[in-house]
UniProtKB/TrEMBL annotation:
Protein name: D-amino acid dehydrogenase 2 small subunit
One MF term in the entry's GO annotations: D-amino-acid dehydrogenase activity
The keyword Oxidoreductase appears for this protein: yes
Ranges in coiled-coil conformation: none
Amino acid sequence: MRDHLSGGIFTESEESADCFQLAVALKNILQQRGVTFRFNTTVRQLAADSNRKVSVQTTAGEHLTPDHIVVALACESTALLKPLGIAVPVSPLKGYSLTVPIERAADAPMVSITDYERKVVYARLGERLRIAGMADMVGLNRRIDTSRIEALKQEARNLFPDAGNYDLATLWTGLRPATPKGKPIIDGTRYGNLWLNIGQGALGFTLAPGSASVISHLLRGQALPFGKNVFTLADA
């Protein structure tokens, strides 16, 4: 790998983590505190009454009118909000990742590495190596394109050929909710109980704690720690 590099930037404070494991742990903690999750339930639509209060209709036949609704549905937010007259400039950028079991620990990176030239990220997750990249504009298509997977594998093999067996990789593809300026949209709407927390792009896990802090301040009518909200829909 040394022969391929001319230099790099090391950020000592940077860390990587498994967002799925964190989400499961957080779910368990919240359930212990009385939070109810409705899994395998789809929101059919949002409907507003004459008082500009929004209700949620689900495939389970529920008609819910909560105190607050936070729309955090990434690229799916666009279609859900459209009937309410809310247009959000969120577009899907399709990305891919491989998660490879590490076979030779000494030949795998110990820290997260970003190849800015090729736009590929390598993250060590315990005994696994995750490689992520690509940005395809193909709408809401979630089909795994094998040619893109092979290109990602080849990039990884070029840098870390002996780290693991890339043919045993777990494959994933997903849609990053991108905005024109690259900033998330964390804001209220003209409906009193409807809020937006979308558009975090490829940094959903990274920006999740900060986004949660912003939306919680807005929900409670509290001033933001950094002053004016710079994540408004109007400035997206």
